[in-house]
Amino acid sequence: MFDIGWAEMAVIAVVALIVIGPRDLPRALYTVGRWAGKARGMLRELQQGMEDIAREAEFEDMKKKFDAAKKLDVKREIGNAIDPDGQMAKALDPVATNERHVPRSSPELEEDEEPAPPAASPAAAPGDSGSSAETAGRPAQTS
User: Fold this and answer.
1) Longest CA pairwise span in the chain (Å)
2) What does pTM read for this prediction?
3) What are the pLDDT digits (tens) for 101-114?
4) What is the DSSP letter of 133?
5) E-state strands within the chain
């Protein structure tokens, strides 16, 4: 951390022994140890605070990206990627294609004639006497 080698530590120990004295040296080392512990604790708290700030910033970025993704219209984006000028959409539009290919009326029908009703269902056999649900409400045919 401070790049202090064994030689420097030995010089500091000899100077401390001479300046502080052998009687007060253990109490001084204990006090220095407590200061070092407090400094480490403060550095640890500072590092955790910085990591929390970084996490919150990442969280805010992720929240912004998530909100942007929620607002994204996937169908429109895919449509723009596949057909940016809209020509395919116009070609495949059923309303536009029906206007171009309107079937003309049959020449056999005149304006005041109505088309024939649909054919009878295959469930009703020709020999039924009117017992089916389709003939209910109509008078039975007699031959």
Assistant:
1) 141
2) 0.39
3) 545 555 554 555 55
4) G
5) none
